């Protein structure tokens, strides 16, 4: 197959022994597809920047929200982070297993609990925050003077569909 990465409706993918172009077809014009691709590219870049296999880019927002809201419940964290409770629960288990967060029983409700950062969680958050600041600066360079417009559009999309 011919590699044609200059065409806007193709995307280059690396196979083990060949360079292959994939036509995006109608996906080229779907905003949601490009939002997802931008998120994936951003997470990959953040992961490369942080370089630590044990720290995951998706943890930054959760640790940050927990750090800024000690005693937050998983339900409130789910809403604030945009993560479904079913995908949040395994991540919280992993963060607890890695001693980054602690769970405390919610008084008067045995079925729920609150979350707070441990000393290790605060340290890991500080490391991730350093990388996040640099990563965000790179994104700001791409957005340029359109940063506020981009943020407004992203917030409007979130508000409309959430």
UniProtKB/TrEMBL annotation:
Q: Which domain of life is it from?
A: Bacteria
Looking at the record, the residues that make up the HTH marR-type domain are 28-159
Any idea which GO molecular function terms this record carries?
DNA binding; DNA-binding transcription factor activity
What InterPro entries does the database record attribute to this sequence?
HTH_MarR-typ (IPR000835), WH-like_DNA-bd_sf (IPR036388), WH_DNA-bd_sf (IPR036390)
State the UniProt keywords alphabetically.
Answer: DNA-binding, Transcription, Transcription regulation
Q: Name one Pfam family in it.
A: MarR
This protein's name:
DNA-binding MarR family transcriptional regulator
Species annotation = Hoeflea marina
Question: Species lineage, top-down?
Answer: Bacteria, Pseudomonadati, Pseudomonadota, Alphaproteobacteria, Hyphomicrobiales
